[in-house]
Amino acid sequence: MIQRRMLTALCLTGAMISGAMAAVSTDQASRLGKDLTPMGAQASGNADGSIPPWNPKGSPIPDNFVAGSDNYVNAYPDDKVLFTIDQNNYKEHADNLTQGSLAMFEKLGGDGFRMQVYPSRRDFVTPDWLYDNTLKNATNATLEDNGQRIANSLPGVPFPIPETGLEVLWNHLTRYLTDHSVTYDTYYVNANGKPILSTTGYMTNVFSMYKTPNKLMDDTPWLKLRLNYKAPTRRAGEILLVHEPGADFTEGKGRKAWQYLTGQRRVRLAPAVSFDTPNPAVAGTSTYDDAFILNGSPERFDWKLIGKKEMMVPYNCYDFVFQTEVKDALGEKFLDPELIRWEKHRVWVVEATLKEGKRHLYAKRRLYIDEDSWQALAAENYDGQGDLWRVQFAYGANLYDIKSNYHFAYGAYDLLQGIYNINTKPAPGGFRTGVNQNAKYFTAKGLARGGVR
Question: Residue 280 gets which letter from DSSP?
Fold first, then answer.
């Protein structure tokens, strides 16, 4: 059954087909919670045991975790490195390396780039109500308006048994996360190996869609994000507010963004905060839609489902994300390999090709989306000449006490210019579950009240 459906998906040369994309049958949906997890992942491990079965109990809570402290210490402190992949043996592991990872070894292996591979842990869990909604979505949710809108979906995974690249992408765009706030420093490292602070900020995220479990996603925003910039001096006092839709990117229903700029001292709509506009938070070394590997409307690309593969990806990076000062992790050409935990996981591979007549800095992109959480963990972006340009990775870990995760720490390696960046990685002690601000804080008027006069 899986092979037949995969062949069907591979035959779809473009996922943006007209009309509705049908939900799966009741028989297919009945697999959820059985051979498939309630989120749609393959419940069993792989043949050689290097990927374990899904653990419905979730990540263990460490003895030294203080409840309510938000100080997420390593859930697996006794795990040891199984093996290291470096320039001497990376070709032996090529089948389990993303194209971007292979390019990293080819370009940077001689400089010491390596992967420390740990035991794979499949411990991502969510509240039971989300599993219930996902089961209902399997037979009810459809893609409408050339893939720009989801219909009949409750908050949860809209397409747990996907058959197209767009369905996999929408699962990432609407993935389950919980409210949080982050104090962070963003750096890029130039071609000379010098780290340059591009942003110090305070980010608050409210996932409005998941506050009403029994309400169809429809017009409820998936995310309300506010960024208050503290540094460098030229950006101090700026504020960015984004309302990201949960189910509808059709004309007039997509992203809404506002900016407060200190020089103008007023709030303005910010339609340019999207697609391939260079992101000033990383000094223009990535685009706005590179944030969190990929975000925003899928309208400019055709999306093709390549299939599911076993890949080495960053996973359970507790020490790097929550315990390390970002500046201490910056090497001259890449993040300190000692700090990044790599595991083998099954990921959905989705490839995007720029539509004829559309413009974007990237002519092609490839995403690797975790089967358990639907979080994009890696990506490759190609320029107009077909050259691999930027390689992206997301670094995260499970929030074991609240059945959620944090994967908003992400970065990109620019292989053509020899630079890289890392964004929204919390400062030690700078991560908080939940937000203290009220609803007005996430409005244009709230920006005006918070602006520097």
Answer: G
Residue 264 to residue 182: CA distance in whole angstroms: 27
Residue type present at position 122: R
Q: Are 447 and 343 in contact, with CB atoms under 8 Å apart?
A: no
For the four alpha carbons of 303, 309, 310 and 316, in that order, the dihedral sign comes to positive
For residue 131, count other CB atoms closer than 10 A to its CB: 19
**Which amino acid appears at position 334 of this protein?**
F
Quote the pLDDT of residue 419: 98
Q: What's the burial of 106, exposed, middle or buried (CB within 10 Å: 0-12/13-18/19+)?
A: middle
Confidence class of residue 452 from pLDDT cuts 50, 70 and 90? low
- Helix, strand, or coil here: 4? helix
150 neighbors 170 (Cβ within 8 angstroms): yes
Instruction: Show the tokens assigned to 263.
Output: 């020089």
User: What pLDDT does 264 receive?
Assistant: 82
Number of C-beta neighbours around residue 402 at 10 A: 15
Rounded Cα gap, residues 367 and 306, in angstroms: 10
Report whether pLDDT(5) > 80: no
* Contact status, residue 53 vs residue 122, Cβ threshold 8 Å: yes
Indicate if the alpha-carbon torsion angle 111, 116, 117, 122 is positive or negative.
negative
Tokens encoding 57: 């109990």
% residues pLDDT > 90 (the chain): 91
**What pLDDT was estimated at residue 263?**
82
CB atoms within 10 A of CB 399: 19
Q: What pTM does this model have?
A: 0.94
Tell me how far apart the alpha carbons of residues 186 and 53 are, in angstroms, rounded to a whole number.
36
What are the extents of the domains in the chain? 2-201+284-443
What span, in angstroms and rounded, lies between the C-alpha atoms of 221 and 212?
A: 11
